[in-house]
Design a protein that fits this description.
The protein is mostly helical. The chain has twelve helices and two strands; from the N terminus they run αβαβαααααααααα. Pfam families: HD_5, Response_reg.
């Protein structure tokens, strides 16, 4: 191109969002290998030297179009298979959560409600720009998928403790608290036996650490502040809110306003202050979920 640098034009086109995916073929009088390599490294689809034979050029373009068609079909098949696998995984997650529900109806309802609370809270955090570097679309997707598994360790707790009427003594409480460790161990075994599935790592962190506290007085590891995985810090609020507002065999539920008051007063001790601030701004949405589930009304997605 006389008086114009074709490389710079190419870079400019590729820098524009609406043009960046358009395939570009260099048609040039340059015939050295270095120029061809430079074009291909920049992302050119092909490099054709002048003078060119029209039939040959058309044939090469048709080949590229055919390859592009194959690539789109392959991408569609991969996407379709990925969705199938993900749906299967989600069904297994729900199935595992329902195993807990079969043993303890209270825990089963708790699993459904906390999953909804967490979803509301994590989207509110993303909208508020809290932890924008961590709360990517993928991470949000994984944390929502993982939520039903946060109490999966309760499968390993005996009926005598899990279904006990009344409060626990110290030994019983220590035993019940092992559900976090049991859940973490179980999910780690799944991770070890499967391909790299990022949502399983989130699920393990959540199951193991959702009873940790911001000030380090939680269990099972006594983690504090940012050493607690973000997914567990978020679930901690959803988990406690549900425990406060739900009726169980050893207590009556608190009013929504009282539950919110308790959570706000625990900012900086039990819960991370930033997440509590977001919770405060959307706590009315928690109340809607709580009332619907407590009235046995199915939530429409």
């Amino acid at each position: 191109m006389p008086n114009i640098n074709g490389y710079e034009i190419f870079k400019t086109i590729k820098s524009l969002d609406r043009f960046k995916n358009i395939p570009i073929i260099f048609l040039t009088t340059l015939n050295d290998v270095e120029s061809e390599l430079k074009c291909l490294k920049l992302g050119a689809l092909d490099f054709i030297r002048k003078p060119f034979v029209p039939e040959l050029m058309l044939s090469r373009i048709n080949i590229h179009l055919e390859l592009a068609s194959y690539r789109k079909k392959l991408e569609f098949l991969v996407r379709e298979k990925t969705e199938t696998i993900e749906n299967l995984q989600d069904s297994m997650v729900v199935g595992l959560a329902e195993l807990v529900e079969c043993r303890d109806g209270e825990t089963g309802g708790h699993i459904k409600r906390t999953a909804k609370y967490l979803e509301i809270l994590v989207y509110a955090m993303a909208e508020a720009g809290v932890y924008s570097d961590i709360l990517t679309e993928e991470y949000i997707h994984n944390i929502i998928r993982s939520a039903p598994l946060h109490d999966i360790g309760k499968i390993g707790i005996s009926d005598g403790i899990l279904l006990k009427r009344g409060s626990f003594d110290e030994n019983e409480r220590d035993y019940m608290e092992q559900h976090t460790t049991l859940g973490g161990i179980a999910l780690q075994k799944v991770i070890d036996a499967t391909a790299d599935e990022s949502f399983l790592y989130v699920a393990k962190d959540m199951a193991l650490c959702h009873h940790e506290k911001w000030d380090g007085t939680g269990y099972p590891l006594g983690l504090s502040e940012y050493n607690i995985p973000l997914c567990a810090r978020i679930m901690a609020i959803a988990d406690v809110y549900d425990a406060l507002t739900s009726e169980c065999h050893y207590k009556k539920p608190y009013l929504h306003s009282k539950a919110v008051e308790i959570i706000l007063s625990s900012s900086g001790t039990h819960f991370e202050p930033y997440i509590v601030d977001v919770f405060k701004s959307i706590s009315d949405k928690f109340n809607v979920i709580s009332e619907l589930y407590n009235q046995n009304v199915e939530i429409i997605e």
